[in-house]
Amino acid sequence: MDYQKINNSLGWLAFTIALSTYILTLEPTTSFWDCGEYIATAFKLQVGHPPGAPTFLLLGNFFSNFAFGDVTKVAYMINLMSALFSALTILFLFWTITSFAKRILGKVQTQGQLISIMGAGLVGALAYTFSDSFWFSALEGEVYAMSSFFTAVVFWAALKWDEEYDLVGDSANRWLLLIAYLVGLSIGVHMLNLLAIPAVVYIYYFKKHETSTKGFIITGITSIVILGFIFFGLIPQVIKWLGIVERTFVNSIGLPFNSGTIFFIALLVALICLGLNKAKENGRNLIHTAILGITFILIGYSSFAVLVIRSNANTPIDENNPEEAVSLLAYLNREQYGSTPLVHGQYFTAGLDKKDPYSDGTPVYVKDEEVGKYIVSDSRKNHSPNFDKKHSGLFPRMWSRNDRHVKAYKDWGNITSRKGKKPSFIENLSYFFNFQVNHMYFRYFMWNFAGKQNDMQSHGSLTEGQWLSGIPFIDEFRLGPQDNLPTRQANNPGRNHFYMLPFLLGLIGLVYQYKKDKKDAWIINLLFIFTGLAIVIYI
Question: At what angle are helices 197-208 and 144-168 packed, to 10 degrees?
Fold first, then answer.
């Protein structure tokens, strides 16, 4: 009974089933929304909307070559790339599930244990294969399929580090460096992959330290700090200082364009080498590994240089024209989209502050070839509105002043009509739970694990786009009688019933996992929360 061979073989079987399914149902050409832009920019390596997706573009460009010059097949080939990465996600999901199952049972000694582990892997992986949202994203040229792959392989690699650490000690840290590199690459696809970091940090903590309440809390804080360091520090600050040094070298010292960029990169490399050398000399293995991790993140993140290179080629699609470090920062920070309040800010009833209605923003610099300097193209004077503090509050979910949005706020938040009065915090939370959590998260979640009513756009109607289990008393309690429906509803292609089986299996697994291994249960739940409700809260 060769566990490893069976585990590998069944993993690739799950991959084959997933890939075959996705190829048979693949979108033959460009589909809606951003897909057309992603396909066009990948095909010719052009610059799409901020903050860009260079890793996706490079891989998409590679797959577009298999159209062999037939431009009518380019979209299909890039869609096929999504199918492949989705199938690879299923492969790593299978291996992740079997890894957790094996950790529960310990050493596999009987055929029954082997069947239990492999059965769990197949049921979990195939349930996700045919889930509504994942299947949908697997068929089109968008970033989410590839982003799912990076999340899956990062989490799997963390478990591989955990397995190997007992055997080879610190030599297993090569898996941590692989994770760092994959995180850097994944930023060039979508930021979602960063949300796996807290779970990875807890895997590290549970392996390296005795568990205590204090250690558990410190690890949680540390995981958030690492996530924040990468998201708010490393990624934007490297580009920010790259731009500052570049502008200083050109505008103040009078050196040629890109001289500051070259100097900054050389200085960064020198500092990394110095840090590695000092850490090694002093026997600081953790610091040495941390510096290497940052280095590998930056190596993966360097894929963004593609956007600068291609922008200088003045491609037909060249959004925001990020031709050098100075303009790249505004592109990566998505400044054109503005900002939304998260912890504290205005409600939709807020007017401008009468004493100080506007604040200045960061000036926009562009390269002037004739002058040989970076000049201000937009001073951003009075750029950002300051809102009336009386109409501000904590955790504002209803902040937009768009008339359509205000109407939705009142409907979903159960706000009575009272012009000019600030919504209460209870109404704010009512909108958050009714719309953002229930309608825009839990409804989608149940599509995947309970069933789906139809594929019609829903704004809360009981007859459009709801989740539907197929269990009469549950569906009738929520949506009313499901008999004698109009043909367009009863025979809708998007209508399916899972009878809540995937959902119930998940709940049973959650309880069983918690009883058998609370540490692994916490790791899984943390990943689930950060890739689910945490996104709802942040966005």
Answer: 10
Q: Nearest 10 degrees: CA dihedral of 421, 422, 428, 434?
A: 20
Tell me, yes or no, whether 387 lies in a domain: no
Cα(464)–Cα(239) distance, integer angstroms: 45
Give CA–CA dist 142/147, Å, rounded.
9
Give SS3 for 102: helix
In a domain, 188, yes or no: no
Distance CA 81, CA 512 (A): 36
Does residue 247 belong to any structural domain of this protein? no
Domain count across the chain: 1
Report if residue 341 sits inside a domain. no
State the residue range of the domain holding 89.
Answer: 1-142
CA angle in degrees (0–180, nearest 5) for 98-101-107 = 100
d(CA 128, CA 14): 11
Nearest-angstrom CA–CA distance, 228 and 233: 7
- Bridge partners of residue 532, in order along the sequence: none
Return the half-sphere exposure (C-beta side, CA atoms, 13 A cut-off) of residue 91: 18
In tens digits, the chain (539 residues) has pLDDT values of 688 999 999 999 999 999 999 999 999 999 888 999 999 999 999 999 999 999 999 999 999 999 999 999 999 999 999 999 999 999 999 999 999 999 998 887 789 999 999 999 999 999 999 999 999 999 999 999 999 999 999 999 999 999 999 888 888 999 999 999 999 999 999 998 999 999 999 999 999 999 999 999 999 999 999 999 999 999 989 999 999 999 999 999 999 999 999 999 999 999 999 999 999 999 899 999 999 999 999 999 999 999 999 999 999 999 989 988 888 888 888 887 878 898 999 999 998 988 888 988 888 888 888 888 999 888 888 888 889 888 999 999 999 989 999 999 999 999 886 777 899 999 999 999 999 999 999 999 999 999 999 999 888 888 899 999 999 999 999 999 888 888 888 889 999 999 999 999 999 999 999 999 999 999 999 999 999 999 998 87
- Name every residue whose Cβ is closer than 8 Å to that of residue 410 and which is 6 or more positions away in sequence: 417
DSSP 191-251: GGGGGGHHHHHHHHHHHHS---HHHHHHHHHHHHHHHHIIIIIIHHHHHHHHHHHHHIIII
Confirm whether pTM is higher than 0.85.
Answer: yes
Give ∠ CA 21-22-28 in degrees, rounded to 5.
130
Residues in Cβ contact with 314 at an 8 Å cutoff, skipping those fewer than 6 apart: none
CA 85, CA 182: separation in Å to the nearest integer?
14
> Which residues, 6+ apart, have CB-to-CB distance to 528 below 8 Å?
none
